[in-house]
User: Fold this.
Amino acid sequence: MSSIKAVIMDEAALKRAVMRISHEITERNHGTESLALVGIKRRGVPLARMIAENIEQNEGVRLPTGSLDITLYRDDLSSITELPSVNATDINFSLTNLTVILVDDVIYTGRTVRAAIDALFSLGRPASVHLAVLVDRGHRELPLRPDYVGKNIPTSKSEFVAVNLPEFDNRTSVEIHDLEIFTSLG
Assistant:
């Protein structure tokens, strides 16, 4: 039995959305000077790499790209596990005076973004921070709004948006699932 309610983006649509985000980043920042991309682990990392590849193809410049683990900055850490698994943050460049584009797959309540900003500022002081997300599904609990959005998808709180990427899922798509069914499949 399939738990998929709807496929919102297939591989081609996802790639078009990421390409559009890539163009918007360079347009709004008047090029690539002083820009860096930081993907929020897990699925923000391959999306950041895709954006970096698109910008390199379009502009001839490879942006510094890193990955950010927000585990210890989550406000719900104690309710998730007693022994959190911390993955390595990989940012091998100085954030000082850069415009950092945080990249994530889905924005929902905004709590992941808040944690990412805290984690980012523990590593340095960027000139500014922008947010790029593949999917904005609404239902914000914090006053945060992405600067670059691949697709706005109105959802109910009883639904889950699954971004499938080859690195984790062996396919590329965005799907809506019923939350009850999705969590029971674990």
User: Anything to note?
Assistant: The chain has six helices and eight strands. The first helix runs from residue 11 to 28. The two ends are 14 Å apart (CA to CA). The longest strand covers residues 99-107.
